[in-house]
Amino acid sequence: MDHHTAQIVMLVAVLAVLAVLAVVSLAFAVSGRRGASAESAGWQGPGGAGRETLAAAGALPVAAFAALACGLLAAHAAVADDLPSCLRRVAEQAPRDILLAVRPGDEELLARLVYAEARSTGFADDLRVARGIAWGAMNRVRLAEVSASARRRYGSGVAGVIFQPQQFNPAVSRRSPFAADFLCPQDAAAWRLAVEAAGRALRGHGNPLLDTAWERRHGLSLVVNFYYPHSPQARAPLAPWEGSTGLRFIGEPESVDLPPAARVRFYRLDRPPADLDPAARGPSPPADGGT
């Protein structure tokens, strides 16, 4: 059941509760009128205290139904507020064109990407997966801030990196099966994980992918590529660039904030960009990117 179907079901449930509430109220009103008629005909019903007890007992179902209705409405509002706007494509619109038309903030845009990419991994409920994707994307953003060649390769800024052609399929491909997740997140729990991961990566503190001495010295991570072995879009257990001279698999992550390599494989640039801004440049790391 998608988010919008759930909203309709919730509304129907609330209306049903209100209908029952109306029937119960009507029944008690009719009962009260009958009691009044009986007393006027000479029937001696319960004493005043008894009638008050019956009235209180009769009010309990009404109060219970009213509380249930309020609870359902509150739950519906909470779920609706927890998810971002659901955006729909028209014909062959690209996800990029739709998102940029509404101009979401960096956190929402990054969270949408994390949400869709995490779903494509097959482990959307794993916070470590969401965090790894968010940090990987922001590593590109921050590297591009100090390198012209990185900007050309990865894009500039959060939006530029996310919508860079041939990079993140849910954000740029009309045919991606996960473009709908990027445009219209429907799983509130997974969305909360994506928002948490995006917010942390945007703040930039505690990057678990700052592993080498060079990275720690410069505050820049060279881990900019990642691969999802269990994705339905994966053609093999290993990435196409596995074993290339420009990227090195980082191995099993040591940080508890990152997923195991069986879920996401991270790759580090063999060396930093040659045109790194002098203000950010430090001693180059060894060729293997090690300490």
Automatic annotation (TrEMBL):
<feature type="region of interest" description="Disordered">
    <location>
        <begin position="270"/>
        <end position="291"/>
    </location>
</feature>
<keyword id="KW-0378">Hydrolase</keyword>
<dbReference type="InterPro" id="IPR042047">
    <property type="entry name" value="SleB_dom1"/>
</dbReference>
<keyword id="KW-1133">Transmembrane helix</keyword>
<keyword id="KW-0472">Membrane</keyword>
<keyword id="KW-0812">Transmembrane</keyword>
<protein>
    <submittedName>
        <fullName>Cell wall hydrolase</fullName>
    </submittedName>
</protein>
<dbReference type="GO" id="GO:0016787">
    <property type="term" value="F:hydrolase activity"/>
</dbReference>
<feature type="transmembrane region" description="Helical">
    <location>
        <begin position="54"/>
        <end position="79"/>
    </location>
</feature>
